[in-house]
Design goal:
Layout: E1 4-10, H1 16-30, E2 33-39, H2 44-49, H3 53-57, E3 82-88, H4 90-98, H5 104-112, E4 119-124, H6 128-131, H7 136-145, E5 149-150, H8 156-164
Parallel strand pairs: 1-2, 1-3, 3-4, 4-5
Bound molecules: flavin mononucleotide (FMN).
């Protein structure tokens, strides 16, 4: 069964290289999602060091991206039907709430927010030290008001359940 195109985005959070593929990307592919995987530049070397990049690429016919396209190149895929951004660092949550798209991952997410029928689920992974920042609650509230589903303490598999519920 093909569910549609799922934008999967990961950022530089501790442990991501150990679970992102096995607990999120592979189960998503097994459930029938076609994957459009985009990584922040921070996390790419983490996946590289863990020998994960090729394994992620093997899950999808679409290029795993972190570089923006050249002006001469067409968009490599349409806006996904849904997004999961997990784990989302405090840095990327703040930028997303402000609409900053200074890397390919944030550009893709920014373009997905507000698209009718495109569910965007964000799972921040941020320590209390990071969440203490005076703008943290405002960032989460801004995203929530924009229709983004912000969840915490959810197992990666449950993120997929969220997409599949109405
Ligand atoms: C080993 C390591 C683990 C980190 N874990 C987290 C984390 O869990 N959450 C977080 O918000 N930042 C974490 N950081 C800091 C982010 O990687 C840093 O803010 C970075 O700029 C995030 O970039 P990105 O949002 O573009 O991926 C960690 C940094 C390192 C080196």
């Amino acid at each position: 069964m093909t569910r549609g195109l799922l934008g999967l985005v990961a950022s530089g959070c501790g442990g991501v290289e150990t679970w992102f593929r096995t607990e999120l990307a592979e189960p998503a592919a097994q459930r029938g999602w076609r994957l459009a995987i985009t990584l922040t530049p921070t996390v790419v070397p983490w996946f590289e060091e863990a020998d994960e990049l090729d394994k992620l690429q093997a899950l999808t016919d679409l290029e795993v991206r972190w570089h923006p396209r050249m002006p001469s190149q067409p968009k490599p895929y349409p806006t996904p039907d849904a997004f999961i951004f997990a784990p989302a660092s405090a840095n990327s949550v703040a930028k997303l709430a402000l609409g900053i798209g200074d890397n390919q991952a944030l550009t893709a997410l920014n373009e997905g927010i507000g698209v009718e029928g495109c569910k965007v689920v964000v799972m921040p992974q941020a320590s209390a030290d990071k969440r203490r920042h005076p703008m943290w609650d405002t960032h989460v509230e801004t995203l929530t008001k924009a229709g983004v589903v912000v969840v915490t303490d959810v197992a990666p598999g449950a993120l997929l359940d969220l997409l599949e519920s109405s």
